[in-house]
Design a protein that fits this description.
Strand order of the largest sheet: 1-7-6-5-4-2-3
Radius of gyration: 26 Å
Shape: elongated
Number of helices: 8
Structural class: alpha/beta
């Protein structure tokens, strides 16, 4: 059961109701020599994250392996407030066995998530998540192929400075769709992806930019995005959502911004869970919304003018593209 502290007004009201002047009066039958007195040995209070560090240091005395793994999955601090909100009954128990669209709690939660991701990435629309970051990138490329279906060559360009697992998943998901993958090289000295110096003979339908890339290097996103648009390709940004708190969002890259942004949502605070799966996100320009995969939740009003939520573009999640 969650701990709900009472305000001073609450305490005063309860004491007045039972006719007691103070909380201490409730314990006056306990002899003074049995009371512990003031807690002089207790240090000053600490913020939640500091307490977490202190307890981690205490636990480390028993021995603990140091985790140097990453490149996509990280041990982030998860504030206690997250669990308090996520486990509220109207959210976690709102899913009905077959008709998720009938549950306002589930739909509101997804709508709030979409709003947050659209703001973080600087894009106009967001879906309600995909399987993981790698499949989100694959879906972004398939989305670009649908948008650019009239192009004679279905070729997409991805950086070599991309997580190798992402490249493997993309190859698996797009091979049967006829997409051709070309890898953009990187400068060994800086780790940055090198945009081609001249226009290609056959322009790609999409160009992927990872920010930061797998080496942790910040790419020249403006140059890569503008080069993609100059070729008539869609610009796809593969981003770390936590890094977007300090980096420019994909919607502001180059002169026009990216067309699609995607990535792995685990850095936002999802537990490592022995390697996943986590969740992928995908956002885009509003003009591309009908080609977006996954579920999209919109806000509306009912007959009484009250705010409500509904699946958008499709009435049911089972057959939504």
């Amino acid at each position: 059961m969650p701990f709900i502290p009472h305000t001073r007004a609450d305490v005063a009201t309860m004491l007045d109701t039972i006719g007691v002047p103070s909380v201490e009066t409730l314990f006056d039958e306990i002899p003074a020599d049995l009371r512990c007195g003031p807690l002089t040995g207790i240090p000053e209070g600490l913020p939640e994250m500091e307490i977490g560090r202190l307890m981690t240091a205490r636990a480390a005395r028993d021995g603990r392996l140091i985790n140097f793994c990453g490149a996509g999955a990280y041990e982030h601090h998860i504030p206690a407030a997250v669990w308090e909100i996520a486990t509220r009954g109207e959210f976690y128990s709102a899913y009905t066995p077959y008709q998720a669209e009938a549950s306002q709690g589930t739909l509101q939660l997804l709508y709030e998530f979409q709003t947050m991701m659209a703001e973080l990435t600087g894009m106009e629309v967001s879906n309600a998540s995909l399987y993981d970051g790698a499949t989100a990138l694959a879906e972004a490329l398939l989305m670009a192929a649908r948008v650019q279906s009239d192009r004679p060559t279905q070729e997409v360009w991805m950086p070599q400075a991309l997580h190798p697992y992402y490249a493997e998943v993309v190859a698996s998901c797009t091979a049967a769709q006829g997409l051709k993958i070309r890898r953009l090289p990187y400068d060994p000295a800086s780790g940055r992806t090198c945009p081609p110096r001249s226009p290609p003979a056959e322009a790609p339908i999409a160009v992927v930019t990872a920010q930061p890339n797998v080496f942790g290097v910040l790419e020249d996103v403006d140059a890569l995005t503008d080069w993609a648009h100059a070729c008539g390709a869609l610009a796809i940004g593969l981003v770390n959502p936590t890094a977007l708190a300090v980096l420019r969002p994909p919607g502001q890259w180059g002169a026009r911004g990216c067309d699609i942004a995607c990535g792995e949502g685990q850095p936002l605070g999802a537990p490592l869970s022995s390697g996943g799966p986590y969740f992928g996100f995908l956002t885009a320009r509003k003009s591309l919304v009908r080609q977006m995969p996954g579920r999209i939740v919109g806000q509306t009003v009912d007959l009484d003018g009250k705010r409500g939520f509904a699946l958008t573009l499709q009435a049911r999640e089972q057959h939504i593209r």
